[in-house]
Amino acid sequence: MKTIKYFFLAVLLVPSILWLFADTLFPQPFTYFSFRSVFVQYSGIIAVAIMSIAMLLAMRPKRLEPFMNGLDKMYRLHKWLGIAALSFAVTHWWFAKGTKWMVGWGWLAKPERKHRGSGESLGFWQDLLHDQRGFAESVGEWAFYAAALLITLALIKRFPYRWFVKTHTLLAVAYLAFVYHSVVLIKFDYWSQPIGWLMAVLLLAGTVAAIWVLLGKVGAKHKVNGEITSTEYHSDMRVLEVTVKLDEGWKGHNAGQFAFATSDLKEGAHPYTIASAWDPQTRLIKFIIKELGDHTERLKNSLSEGMLVTVEGPYGRFDFQDKQPQQIWIGAGIGITPFVARMKKLAEQPNGKKIDFFHPTTKVNDVVRQKLAADVSAANVNFYLLDDTASVRLDAEQIRAAVPNWQSASIWFCGPPLFGESLRKDFLAKGFPEKHFHQELFQFR
Q1: Which domains does the chain have, with CATH numbers?
Q2: Tens digit of each residue's pLDDT (9 = 90 or more) over 291-322
Q3: Which of 220, 240, 336, 364 has the smallest set of CB atoms within 10 Å of its CB?
Q4: What is the DSSP string of 38-94?
Q5: Do the Cβ atoms of 240 and 233 come closer than 8 Å?
Q6: Contacts of 345-353 spanning 24+ positions with Cβ under 8 A
Q7: Average of pLDDT values for 391-401?
């Protein structure tokens, strides 16, 4: 989490510092309108800079995963950037539009604007941009209304995922409108300074990313077709196991990684943790899917043996790789899936680490219990199956009591975010190094 927090701050600070080299928030004489003039420039530049970075992250760039510790962290950063961009855009819109309203209401007296003399030229490019200012302002205003609505919908959890995917893609269109708005309205003098150079790079890169998104090319190089070979539904647990045989082209995956699977083009791709080790001979990959929404509830009826699907990935850095002699695993509920994959890998390639695995859950049937017992035995893992009810909840104190040498271990958590955050804070308060607490942030909106 620290990495994406630092990156988030850098996205805010770098363009802010470069802008301050070119302008100031304290113009002289300092009046409402003189401040408005520079603040509209500043807020607009920061908003579109943030949007540009968010647009680049929307392409799911695998090369950035090692630096940000996984695509799940990158998507969390993408969400933060979206909220920050909306905040700056709202203030930008208010100072630009609200000021005009306040003048119309008689709350402010508009200063007299200096007009160019007849025939006076500012230069070809500056004249060209100046002549488009009115249209660019209108484009930016309506793009703001659209983007504000789309970002708000993305933050509403009850908004169906299939509609979220479609509407969120439209943000790429709004972004292209912001690019035009910015190129025309950014103060012309900025373009010859570092802030202008930075914005030129960001706007160009963001434009390429937006076009890529609109063409449906995101993740195209990492997509492989496959065929469902089996499904197994556990009605009492509301869990579906799906096994897929992938075509040639899948480069393999590490235990703990996830992939986007598409079985219905109208629904789009959904992320699922991979619950199997990779064997290039069989090319089989398994997903264990919990019914958590309208889409996952329909899968038991919509998926069948022989159905073709598309799998994109693998993504993620929840790969159990560290130098600690001992590991503590906590897989809460459906968060058990990466650990199932890891146990299957350890059965093939033991690494000698001592592993204590805690699995709090409200329901495990006999079939799943037997599968878990076989995996635990083959991987030589100390397994704790816990009843996760309102009256009995796993906490950090129980884990420390069960694992006396917890200080020398690394912790790997996958499950409900608030539960993971509670455990992380508790362990860190006891002096546990934050770098050894690994948590999958499996939320993509």
Answers
A1: 2-109+125-214 (1.20.120), 220-315 (2.40.30.10), 326-439 (3.40.50.80)
A2: 887 788 889 999 999 999 999 999 999 999 99
A3: 220
A4: HHHHHHHHHHHHHHHHHHHHTT--GGGHHHHTSHHHHHHHHHHHHHHHHHHHHHHHI
A5: yes
A6: 345/255, 345/277, 346/378, 346/379, 346/380, 346/381, 347/375, 347/378, 347/379, 348/277, 350/379, 350/380, 353/324, 353/325, 353/326, 353/327
A7: 88
Percent of the chain, pLDDT > 90? 77
Question: Can you give the pLDDT at residue 445?
Answer: 64
Compute the mean pLDDT over every residue in the chain, rounded to the nearest whole number.
91
What one-character DSSP code corresponds to residue 131?
Answer: T
CB 343 within 8 A of CB 383: no
Q: Which residues 6+ apart lie within 8 Å of 50 measured at CB?
A: 11, 12, 81, 84, 85, 88
Positive or negative CA dihedral for 156, 158, 163, 164?
positive
Q: At what angle do helices 194-214 and 32-57 cross, to 10 degrees?
A: 40
In sequence order, what are the beta bridge partners of 42? none
pLDDT digits (tens, 9 = 90+) for 35-71: 999 999 999 999 999 999 999 999 999 999 999 989 9
pLDDT band at 23 (very low <50, low <70, confident <90, very high): very high
Nearest to 442 by CA among 253, 290, 306, 229: 290
Strands of 284-290's sheet, edge to edge?
Answer: 270-273, 258-262, 308-315, 223-234, 239-246, 284-290
Mean per-residue pLDDT, 237-266: 93
3 state SS of 352: coil
How many CB atoms are closer than 10 A to CB 259?
27
Q: What's the pTM?
A: 0.88
From edge to edge, which strands make up the β-sheet containing 437-439? 382-387, 354-361, 326-331, 409-414, 437-439
- Cα 10 from Cα 15, distance rounded (Å): 8
